[in-house]
Amino acid sequence: AQKVTQAQTEISVVEKEDVTLDCVYETRDTTYYLFWYKQPPSGELVFLIRRNSFDEQNEISGRYSWNFQKSTSSFNFTITASQVVDSAVYFCALSESFHNAGNMLTFGGGTRLMVKP
Amino acid sequence: DTEVTQTPKHLVMGMTNKKSLKCEQHMGHRAMYWYKQKAKKPPELMFVYSYEKLSINESVPSRFSPECPNSSLLNLHLHALQPEDSALYLCASSQGNSELETQYFGPGTRLLVL
């Protein structure tokens, strides 16, 4: 069975601080996708990034960066110079396919990030 | 365009009411999903439709009845709900033609059952 663990339930930082959200996963699949989604108070889950299990390159997008390490089954997310607008719940998720029947996402419990001015 | 729309945004209903939630996407996606999300919890999968056919039902009570009239629309019909069914209901879609895909979510419907 697949499992995603986000050990940090809540993180509070002051604006302009860097913050890292941890994600650890378990799967027996050799091919999988990992995702990060952002859920602001409005409720919509906003797709941030997808990472293929065969691609361990780190990725940077503006103030966001992701560190994927298969050896430790981790897919951590760092926000540099955090801003108040970054306040949200962030979910890490693992994708499992069902052969033309759609995909199933296994979500972590989420990390609530609060950025204070 | 990665937009999934959901209506209504908010819904209050009594336990004897019948209501429907609507989800629409125009990305040409062929897989659509319903999720239920309780406060401070991650989304839980309810149903998956693939090419307008129900492919996954995660043991959801029959008071929730999904319907996929065409490839762009997904409905969730609600009848005789319980107060514990109050939650955020999220719709998502994905391409539906490959093993692993990205799901794009709508803004959700906040449901309150009185």
Could you outline the blueprint of secondary structure elements for this entry?
The complex is a heterodimer of chains A (117) and B (114).
Chain A: E1 3-5, E2 10-14, E3 19-21, E4 24-26, E5 33-39, E6 46-52, E7 59-61, E8 64-69, E9 74-79, E10 88-97, E11 103-107, E12 111-116
Parallel strand pairs in A: 2-12
Antiparallel strand pairs in A: 1-4, 3-9, 5-6, 5-10, 7-8, 8-9, 10-11, 10-12
Chain B: E1 4-7, E2 10-13, E3 18-25, E4 31-37, E5 44-50, E6 53-57, E7 64-70, E8 73-79, E9 87-94, E10 104-105, E11 109-113
Parallel strand pairs in B: 2-11
Antiparallel strand pairs in B: 1-3, 3-8, 4-5, 4-9, 5-6, 7-8, 9-10, 9-11
List keywords for this structure.
A: 117 residues; mainly beta; 6-stranded mixed beta sheet; 55% strand; B: 114 residues; 7-stranded mixed beta sheet; 4-stranded antiparallel beta sheet; globular
Can you characterise this structure?
The complex is a heterodimer of chains A (117) and B (114). Chain A is mainly β and 117 residues long. In chain A, 0% of the residues lie in helices and 55% in strands. Chain A contains no helices and twelve strands. In chain A, strands 2, 5, 6, 10, 11 and 12 form a six-stranded mixed sheet that branches. In chain A, a hairpin with a 2-residue loop joins strand 7 and strand 8. The radius of gyration of chain A is 14 Å and the shape is globular. Chain B is an all-beta fold. Chain B is built from no helices and eleven strands. Chain B has strands at residues 4-7, 10-13, 18-25, 31-37, 44-50, 53-57, 64-70, 73-79, 87-94, 104-105, 109-113. In chain B, the strands form two sheets. In chain B, strands 2, 4, 5, 6, 9, 10 and 11 form a seven-stranded mixed sheet that branches. A four-stranded antiparallel sheet of chain B has the order 1-3-8-7, with no helix packed on it. Chain B is globular and about 40 Å long. Chains A and B meet through strand 5, strand 6, strand 10 and strand 11 of A and strand 5, strand 9 and strand 10 of B.
